[in-house]
Design a protein that fits this description.
Shape of chain B: globular
Structural class of chain B: mainly beta
Radius of gyration of chain B: 13 Å
Mean pLDDT of chain B: 91
Order of helices and strands of chain B: EEEEEEEEEEE
Order of helices and strands of chain A: EEEEEEEEEEEE
Helix content of chain A: under 10%
Number of helices of chain A: 0
Structural class of chain A: mainly beta
Radius of gyration of chain A: 13 Å
Oligomer: heterodimer
Strand content of chain B: over 45%
Number of helices of chain B: 0
Largest sheet of chain B: 7 strands, mixed
Helix content of chain B: under 10%
Strand content of chain A: over 45%
Low-confidence stretches of chain B: none
Shape of chain A: globular
Number of strands of chain B: 11
Distance between the termini of chain A: 41 Å
Low-confidence stretches of chain A: none
């Protein structure tokens, strides 16, 4: 079965410094992977998706993620954090076309 | 504007009462989904529907029921049989014809049962 593990439940960074949110996946074949963001009491918004094309995926708001098959990782990065990036981030794998399996989330806090 | 609407945003019910959460989409998407979110956890799939008049159980369907009479609507009923119904409920939709089912989410309904 496909699954994802988000390695940090909470990450704090200072405004203007890089962001790294870590995600490892488990899959018997090449998966489809996503990162979603959720602001407090809101729905989820798609940041980016990997679907076996380019391994470096660029998303919205300056975020990007790199698919590394050898490390079974799909870490989310941003060069410079902004206060508006404070939110919950979910790494997601699609085990079947119509289903998503969510990680437990990483809460990102931005320190002014 | 196209999107997914969920109403109401906050819902309060007494224990033992059934309650129905609304989800409407005007994106012309074929598939719709209901998720439950609890603090510190990811989303868990309750039910999903790929076509009108058809739906499948997700991972935590017990105590819930759904209907899909129209393409744009997928209401969720939380029955009195659901042992711990207080949670944040999210509805989503996707285009079933794509190779990857990218899902779009509504703003959610926070249900509190006392």
């Amino acid at each position: 079965a496909q699954s994802v593990t988000q390695l940090d439940s909470h990450v704090s960074v200072s405004e203007g410094t890089p962001v790294l949110l870590r995600c490892n996946y488990s899959s018997s074949y090449s998966p489809s992977l996503f990162w979603y963001v959720q602001h407090p009491n809101k729905g989820l918004q798609l940041l980016l998706k990997y679907t076996s094309a380019a391994t470096l995926v660029k998303g919205i708001n300056g975020f990007e993620a790199e698919f590394k098959k050898s490390e079974t990782s799909f870490h989310l990065t941003k060069p410079s954090a902004h206060m508006s990036d404070a939110a919950e981030y979910f790494c997601v794998v699609s085990p079947e076309r119509e289903k998503l399996t969510f990680g437990t989330g990483t809460r990102l806090t931005i320190i002014p | 504007d196209g999107g997914i609407t969920q109403s109401p945003k906050y819902l309060f019910r007494k224990e033992g009462q059934n309650v129905t959460l609304s989800c409407e989409q005007n994106l012309n998407h074929d598939a719709m989904y209901w998720y439950r979110q609890d603090p510190g956890q990811g989303l868990r799939l309750i039910y999903y529907s790929q076509i009108v008049n058809d739906f499948q159980k997700g991972d935590i369907a017990e105590g819930y029921s759904v209907s899909r009479e129209k393409k744009e609507s997928f209401p969720l009923t939380v029955t009195s049989a659901q042992k711990n119904p207080t949670a944040f409920y999210l509805c989503a939709s996707s285009i079933a014809r794509l190779a990857v089912y990218e899902q779009y989410f509504g703003p959610g309904t926070r249900l509190t049962v006392t």
